[in-house]
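Q: I'm writing a short methods note and want an example of a predicted protein-small molecule complex. Could you take the sequence and the SMILES for fe (ii) ion and return the bound structure as tokens? Please keep the output block clean; save any remarks for afterwards.
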Amino acid sequence: MTQTFTRMDESTAEQWAVIGKETYAHQGRVADRALDMLRSLAEITDGFAVDQLTHSLQTATRAERAGADEEVVFASLLHDVGKAVSVPNHPEIAAAILKPYVRSDVYHMIVAHQDFQGRHYYAHFGADPNARDKYRGEAWFELAERFADDWDQTAFDPDYDTLPLEHFEPLVRARFASAKIV
Ligand SMILES: [Fe+2]
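A: Understood, no commentary inside the block.
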């Protein structure tokens, strides 16, 4: 057993090489945790017609059937995973989890998704349904609009032919297998 440090200011390059190797070897934990968080969304219904796992699966199913690329389908599946922790700031939580594993436009699609969804329900809360307009001109605007309007806001249908989590599991494992350099 290699002797390692008890405080960082006494650490060596060799010890950090071991930590780096161990961390890399256990990267699979990321997908395991994300899948656990997704499964936990089955416990959250909170007045919607479907639970939040079904909603997530249906959003990803709709994206996949519309021909979205793998990163977009992956992010569609995980876009509400932050709700497993805290609903009010769930877009930021999900986006932070996804950030090292998706390209920039996909990250922005997730971090801003609530304001794009707002077109379809913010009026019921006295908020601005055009909240998305502040992002007009961004390179990712059209993608975020398609995500919210075509896949996310429509994904509350209990009668839709929603694909199961097992269908998406290989994609989740593949995409979380290595982080992009950030
Ligand atoms: Fe959603």
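A: Remarks, as requested: The longest helix spans residues 52-65. The pocket of fe (ii) ion is lined by residues 55, 59, 79-80, 152 (CB under 6 Å).
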